[in-house]
Design brief:
The structure is a single chain. With about 350 residues, the protein is an alpha+beta fold. It folds into two domains: about 1-55 and about 150-290, no CATH class; about 60-145 and about 290-355, FAD/NAD(P)-binding domain (3-Layer(bba) Sandwich). The protein has eleven helices and twelve strands. It is globular, with a radius of gyration of 22 Å. The chain starts with a helix and ends with a helix.
Length: about 350
């Protein structure tokens, strides 16, 4: 249990609760949920420029990371076709992958296919079900993809000024503006209460908020004096109580709750807002192909990790379809911007390719 880990190392309840947010981030789970301690450890894996457990901003925004990978690939002869939706994987006589068919009818032939899509899209939409073992299909269908996350992107005309650490007179970013700011987490019980509300189909009345201001470190993201604020919030159920969907009214009502909370910590924040983009779990699924809106392509619970990710006997990146590999967040070791699943899958694919 996460609580036991935190109680062993720390005494301060606000510090424990702040750390606890990284144990439930992206997970429909409470700090009291068994196994939640793993998600915290997952978030402090690895290193950044020699610093263990450190995180960083990507200059130019997260898309710049994808562009860097794309440029490295094209420099070595890769061809990249953006905005070309894949319709299905092409299969040979023996059921092996032979390329992909695009929605516009184009067929791209290849000896190997690596899918960065979720296991649900890869195996339930892009492959004929009769080509897959029934128990495998059943396992993929049963993967817990519940997500509590609503992401809100905000444009503001001035830097937020927090009561606990007011802005400098010149309005320049201070050290805390360049970090991840966690709100509504003075105690783990607050997080548990927010989780409990969502399990009953209600967006949290006091949501857990992780607030970042990337423009504080990367001024090119916003006009002079203005900033972009990224709000990673939870808990919001995919389907609201009574089977209601997330219409515009529900979206704005929840966002207003989030902004009211921020206003309590940083008076004047609401008046500084120029625009906002609200992405609920169904929006994250529709726009980014995240099953259930889950940023990890499936819960990072102990029953869906290691040898069981995405399914037992298929944690080694190979799939029931020869020549088809899973290389995204739904593969071992799971989600996060670290590239481990992709690197591991590429090594397996290269090893197999040498024998073709």
């Amino acid at each position: 249990l996460l609580g036991q880990i935190l109680d062993h190392w720390f005494e301060s309840e606000p510090l424990k609760a702040t750390l606890a947010t990284d144990a439930v981030i992206g997970a429909m789970a409470s700090p009291h949920t068994p196994g939640s301690g793993y998600v915290l450890l997952h978030h402090v894996m690895g290193e950044l420029e020699g610093r263990r457990g450190a995180w960083g901003y990507v200059a130019g925004g997260m898309g710049a990371l994808s562009q860097a990978i794309a440029h490295a690939a094209t420099a070595r002869g890769a061809h990249i076709f953006a905005e070309k939706a894949v319709c299905h994987v092409l299969l040979g006589r023996d059921g092996e992958a032979q390329g992909v068919a695009l929605q516009d009818g184009t067929e791209v032939r290849s000896k190997l296919v690596l899918s960065n899509a979720s296991p649900q899209i890869t195996f339930l939409e892009l492959i004929p079900q009769e080509q897959l073992p029934k128990d495998f299909v059943q396992w993929i269908r049963q993967v817990d993809t519940r997500s509590p996350v609503t992401k809100i992107n905000v444009a503001v005309d001035r830097l937020p000024s927090f009561l606990a650490a007011p802005n400098a007179r010149n309005g320049q970013p201070l050290p805390h503006h360049q970090c991840s700011i966690h709100l509504n987490c003075e105690g783990t019980q607050l997080l548990h209460q927010a989780f409990t509300e969502a399990t009953h189909g209600h967006p949290s009345s006091r949501p857990m908020i992780e607030l970042c201001i990337p423009s504080a470190l990367d001024p090119g993201l916003a006009p002079p004096g203005c900033h972009v604020v990224s709000l990673f919030t939870q808990y919001t159920p995919s389907v609201l109580a009574g089977g209601r969907s997330w219409d515009e009214q529900a979206r704005n009502a929840y966002a207003d709750t989030v902004f009211d909370c921020i206003e309590d910590y940083a008076p004047g924040f609401k008046a500084s807002v120029i625009g906002r983009d609200i992405l609920t779990p169904p929006d994250l699924e529709r726009i980014f192909g995240l099953p259930g809106g889950n940023i990890f392509h499936g819960g990072m619970s102990l029953d869906q990790l290691y040898f069981a990710r995405p399914a037992p006997s298929y944690s080694g990146y190979r799939s029931p379809i020869p020549g088809l590999y899973l290389c995204g967040s739904g593969a071992h070791p799971g989600g996060g911007v670290m590239g481990a699943a992709g690197r591991n899958a590429a090594q397996v694919a290269i090893k197999d390719f040498r024998h073709l």
